[in-house]
Amino acid sequence: MREPTFLILTALAGGPRHGYGIIQEVTALSAARVTLLPGTLYTALDRLTAQGLVEPDREEVVDGRLRRYYRLTPGGLDALRAETVRLRQLATAAETRLRALRPRTT
Amino acid sequence: MPPTGDPLARRYRRLLLAYPRAYRRERGEELLGLLLDGAPAGQTRPSLRETADLIRGGLRCRLGRPASSTVGVWAVLTALICGLFTAALASRVAWETSRPQPDRAEFTAAFAEAFPRHRLGDDVSTARALFVIYGQPLSRESLHSLLLGDGGEYQEGVAAGSAVGPMPTAEAETLATARQRLRNAGWQVYEPTSEVLQTCADPRCDPASQPVETVLVARRGDTVLRATFDDPRTFGSYLGVELQRAAPPAVLPAAVLAGLVGGALAWLVFAWASRRTEDRRRAPVLLGLTLFFWWAPVLLATASLAGHHLDEPHPSWHPLWEWLGQPTLSLFFLVGLAGALILLVTALTPRRDARPLTVSLG
Q1: Are B333 and B147 in contact (CB under 8 A)?
Q2: Among A22, B212, B294, B295, which residue has the fewest nearby CB atoms (within 10 Å)?
Q3: Which pTM value belongs to this model?
Q4: Which residues of A touch B55 (CB under 8 A)?
């Protein structure tokens, strides 16, 4: 799973969000390292919807602008969990090796 | 999407035209709302980054199959090959702006200009058309040969003749004199190339005893001269000369323009068919077959012609269709065309609606 996809799923794990909300959340989660543009976000949302990981939730109109909310599907939740476990395993393996390296370098 | 007086919204709407109409109808307002939500106060024009992102997103959306990671590659391959075919067709049409192939008088004059002390044989052949198949202009009768197996015989017409009698001067002297005389007469003369002909397959044959073929190429205006020095014991004459037209100036712009238009149209048709056949399992198979039968001749012909171009000077390149393996491998093209037509018919036929329309009341 690519990082923007992981961040979008993570943003939606906090509850349904509309497009602008997802962009803001991804920016916050990545400490402004990843800034999604609307075209890229909707390409990703279309892909995730086709893969059954995300689905439309509800619509609302704010200041005359239509906002459609998206939420994770159970499949999306599973995919996010699996990816989180994979990343944690990788991070743990890296930490273990770095800890073993530390006494020799100091 | 109703029009609005906000110039930024109007410009965003214009960019959203990159998306297919059905998508705009369903998601256009939502996407516009997001764009306006994210725009800083006072912004009146989309940034370059936004513009590129929306165009890229819209073009990707047009291809449909949102979960596919390869549909873009297939679209590019299709657009490219269709653009090349269109360019080749346009270049053939543009060839009609050329003067007719040289006649006997023009050929004789050129021969005498380059090789004054040599005797030209009577059997000078001339071409009856710019391009010929088996020496004849393309006709309804020869169309069968062109399309079904003998396409390699479709070639640019040429006026050709050979010297008769013994060579009056040594080959090196003849060559030097010809180069000098041609240059003096305004021809651009290219460095002659020589190739040892492998007439004996036995490895015990002495390479030094193998005949050597030397080719001299020159161009003046729209005419190309090609003189070949061969061993008269093998070829019946020590010198063969060919005269033919170079590609007219209209060929390149016509090919580029038609290639761009053809490629763009092919991309749009591919995108339309891709969206229409998302639930058709045979569509990717048909596309794969079509692209194989269209691209295979290109790869084979390009590899062969590139080597040939490197072997001797080419003041005028071989026509584009020859680089695409056409019409030599026209059977491949026809099979690919049949695949493409079946694919289009599949896209045109009504499909099962995966997402039936639902109407919620209240």
Answers
A1: no
A2: B212
A3: 0.84
A4: 39
Domain boundaries, chain B: 1-63, 69-98+247-362, 100-245
Q: What distance in Å separates the CA atoms of residue A83 and residue A86, rounded to the nearest whole number?
A: 5
Q: What is the DSSP string of B72-102?
A: HHHHHHHHHHHHHHHHHHHHHHHGGGSPPPP
pLDDT at B362: 40
> B66 and A47: CB-CB below 8 Å?
yes
Give the Cα separation of A16 and A22 in Å (integer). Answer: 9
Q: How high is the pLDDT of residue B204? A: 72
B30, closest residue in chain A (CA to CA): A66
Query: From CA A10, how far away is CA A25, in angstroms rounded?
Result: 9
ipTM: 0.87
The residue of B25, B34, B47, B63 whose CB has the most chain A CBs within 10 angstroms, and thus the best one to mutate to test that interface, is B34
Give the A-side interface with B, CB within 8 Å: 18-20, 23, 37-43, 46-47, 49-51, 59, 65-68
Has residue B141 got a pLDDT over 60? yes
